[in-house]
Records
---
Amino acid sequence: MRPDSALSVSKERRRAVVLLSGGLDSATAAAIAKERGFDLLALSFLYGQRHAIEIEAAKRVGAFLGVTRHVFQTIDLRAFGGSALTGDVAVPKATDLSAIGREIPVTYVPARNTIFLSFALAYAEVTDTRDIFIGVNAIDYSGYPDCQPEFIGAFETLARLATKAGAEGASFTIHTPLSAMSKADIIREGLRLGVDYSLTHSCYDPADDGTACGACDSCLLRRQGFAEAGASDPLSYADLPNR
């Protein structure tokens, strides 16, 4: 069987490459792509992140959404370090929520979304796909520059200039359906779409058993989002032992 034999789809449906980390945002973005009628080609990365448990979450989410194909790519960004997620720097805890996003935190991984989107672009070109979904957010997020609309627009230009498909007149669209949504709005949209958030993982510094710390930026934003959405977060947190 050819490796790409599972990619055959009806002519009435389009494919989309979806970057699937296993987190709340990427799961919701993928569910939106599915609702819009795309067959999903999922792409997840084991990049040396300390929260590599998110790969198991990505597998669960991909199976739940019925992705057509799921590629897991290994890139060792620990070789460079430069981030609390790929090095020995401690993950900041219990940050004041109002301070999140004011400056670029140590959990920023240098060029991560540029690298991820480059792989997604290659995957898209090889599979004759012109749509890529990424769950970046520019409202309730940690302040990463590669989540901004300006970056996404620049990457679309790069995609046109740097590919054979682009040189032949094709264009690629980087879909960012969550970009202008609050975390609460993202959760409400995911619940409307039937996303099972118990399958996801958000913590930057989980315990060995996968329990979320509850105090890193990602945990705080997630918890605030569920509270503001008036919904119950199905995950367990280290500071809520009786949950």
---
Amino acid sequence: MGFDLSSIEDYVANHLRMFIFSVFGLMIFVGIIAVTVFFIAVRGEEKTMVPDVTGKELTEALLELQVKELYPRLQLRYSQTSRDRGLILEQEPKPGSITKAGRRIRLVVSQGVIVNRVENFASRNIDEVRLDIQTINATAGGLPLLSIREPIMYQHSAETPGTIIAQKPEPGTNISGPTSLEFVVSMGRENQSVTVPQLTGLPLARALEVISTSGINFHFLTRERAGGESGETVVAQLPAASTSAASTLPVQITVTAPDNLAGNETFGIFRYTIPPNPYPLSVRLEAQLPSGDRQRIFTVNYSGGEFTVPYKLPIGSVLILSMLNRELFRETVN
């Protein structure tokens, strides 16, 4: 029995071709992997710009870093004032630096001021100082470190009403435990007079803006329109414009009713008697509409007495009166 030489040659040739194709395919596969690895290595991690978060609240800073895919490394530090508490004092890398996503950014966060001496409160507003002391006590923990002795002494002076003009203990006194602060606060000049502004002829909204910065006391009245008068307009005032009057004397202001009211609207005067204060405090009247939106009506510094303000609002609105951001009274408009 003889061998078929041509069959053997065909067999060898077929296997040789298969081997060559396999080697070639393997080389292509390895080449693809190599190219992919090369481009991944060249591209590297995604770059991002470090945002400027210095001076911002910690929560706001964290959100900005999260957007940039950066992560915080926090350090706490006492600062020179309690008003810095919770703010970013420093950051590293600096704002505008280009860095890799996923990097940690060092944030130095203020713990507020470490209190061991009485600071100088003179020339500061008493209401601001109250807020500062609340922050200091919250930082200290435990028993209140500082407190304000009540009642506060008030005195007429040339300083702006509400300004601290004297204190005890003196600035620089060491604090070894809970300390009570005594303040003398300015009531402004005695028998201070103001110049009555021109209100007659102004639309109500504009008149309220003028009153808020004029320093006058005020009392609103309303009446129906007469002749060619416009609605919601000041048509009379007493004393007259440019008159010099005591700041405690109410200026009587007469406003006309609106030209027309929608079916769900009403017009009236809000009235509330605010207890007397030693000096004018910030008072705000706003309305919560049936839709849930809030609408500011009037903001003014007011020393007390009957507080009157005209309004035109949808029925069912709630009028809210606040002093120093503390709610005093609310009523529903019918």
